[in-house]
Amino acid sequence: MNHKKDKNTADDFGAKIQCFVDLCRDRGLRVTPQRLAIYKALVNSDEHPSAEMVYEKVRGSLPTISLDTVNRTLLTFSEIGAAFVVEGSGGARRFDAGLDNHQHFKCVKCNRIIDFHHEPFDDIELPASIDGRFTVSRKTVYVEGLCELCQSH
User: Fold this and answer.
1) What is the pLDDT of residue 89?
2) Whole-angstrom Cα distance, residue 58 to residue 77?
3) How far apart are CA 80 and CA 27, in angstroms?
4) What burial class does residue 148 get, using C-beta atoms within 10 Å of its C-beta: 0-12 exposed, 13-18 middle, 19+ buried?
5) Residue 65 and residue 54: Cα distance in Å, rounded?
6) Residues 6+ apart with CB under 8 A from 86
7) Is 58:41 a contact under the CB 8 Å cutoff?
8) Crossing angle of helices 33-43/67-80, nearest 10°?
9) 8-53 confidence digits (pLDDT tens)
10) Sequential DSSP letters for 83-131
């Protein structure tokens, strides 16, 4: 059900890393070992991880990194368009490096966030009351309910 993991071949992973490096350079950000390790942890995750989850993965290779550094770096990734915050997830902010068209389903029981793609959601039209009044940078669809695992328990 989660298409991100299926798409992460070695070639795809290398291409994502190169796009990230290019994006950082375009935005005037140095590509530090910390930024690269945090981005790799985010891209390799299929959990839409929180800063704490990324921190736990990264500190194995960078034991001196702080949770604050990881959190600030993830927010920087969001600001430059390398990742985004999964809106509406409640609790700790959750991050997603999957920039392809997709939507999110959140299980209200186990809190998993699962990617899905429904093409008609890609270009949702704004209502006339909003269209033209605001500059829209992103439109998302977020669905909540019980996942298949929680329904069976």
Assistant:
1) 57
2) 16
3) 7
4) exposed
5) 11
6) 48, 93, 94, 95, 96, 104, 113, 142
7) yes
8) 70
9) 477 888 999 999 999 999 999 999 999 999 999 999 998 899 999 9
10) -EE-TT--SS-BEE---SS-EEEEETTT--EEEE--GGGTTPPPPTTTT
User: How far is residue 31 CA from its own chain's centroid?
Assistant: 19
Given a cut of 50, is residue 64 above it in pLDDT? Answer: yes
Whole-prediction pTM value?
A: 0.76
The residue written with tokens 């991880």 in the block is 49
Phi, psi of 63 (to 5 degrees): -65, -20
pLDDT of residue 49: 94
Q: Which two tokens stand for residue 78?
A: 């969001």
Q: Which DSSP state fits 50?
A: B
pLDDT in tens, 86-141: 876 567 888 999 888 899 999 989 988 999 999 999 888 888 888 778 888 778 88
Please give the pLDDT value at position 6: 45
Q: Which structure tokens are listed for 109?
A: 């029981």
Q: Comparing C-alpha atoms, which of 74, 66, 116, 114 is closest to residue 92?
A: 74
